[in-house]
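Input/output pair, single chain:
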Amino acid sequence: MALLADAGSCHGSISSTTPLDGLCTYLQNRGVNPAFINLIGRVLWPLVLFLLVVVIARITRRLVRRAMRRSNADAQVATLAQNALLLGGYVIALGVAFVAAGLDIGVVLTLGGATSIVLGLALQDLLRNIIAGTFILVERPFRIGDTVTIDTVTGTVQSISLRTTLLRLPDGQQAILPNLIAFSNRVINATAFERRRYSVSVWIPLDVDLEAVLRAARAELEAMPEPAADPPPRIQPAVQIDGGVTLSCDYWLDYREHNADAVAALLVRRLATAVEAVQAGHPHEPPQPASRGGAVPAAEAAPPRRSRRPRAALLRRRAEPDRPSDPDAPPA
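Output:
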């Protein structure tokens, strides 16, 4: 009789009540098999709780996805956060379902801890790379398209996933680096800032006036609008191992707006022209910088045109006889 009474209970050996007690009482009064009523208490109610927690987790996931879209968060970070929320929701749902089914909560926690330890030992390298990739996506030390040096590998970032980072090397090869390497080693980002320092050198003859060459070179740099004014360019002579002298010019350039190779070639030509002019003894005058407002310089402006009288007026003047200036004077 005790067994039948326990079997007829909607929640078995659980002393707490559930919203399904009314349904179980109704089925018991209708003479339904007590084993089926016990099955409802042990299966149906935990299943309802499991589905309820899963629905709440999915709603939370959608809200987080909308919030990340409004904040322009990284797509992979948003996907990771959504999947983590959904996975956490499933874990919580399973725990709630097991407890509702009558399983001791201590057993559930022990089971979960043992499972976590086994998975952590088996997948420790994978988990470390995923955690490192998560930090990289959140902190963003580099982005897709940046030229970076990770440890000893230099290339352009092609993609950043949770486990690996793909680089395109200068020779066209592809390097796949685990995120743990990028997270725990030195990273140099060559494209993190808008300006980059460049340097060009020009050979100087030994018999040339070095001070005059420096003045001419500085004038050439001031006449070029491409190099940045802050920090200012630096020009200094350097003595080579063979005894020759070169003029080294260091300047900063916005490589995103200007072609670095074209600016370097133009600067070398101008410096070489300045050196030749100083060597020949001619005063060097650097070209005027290009007008940014579109106005034509005064030296290139067209000369004013002389006013011309109409041809008919000239012919009429030639046809008319010369009149005396005094009207009372007799005609000639």
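Confidence is low (pLDDT under 50) at residues 1-9, 11-15, 290-327. The first helix runs from residue 2 to 8.
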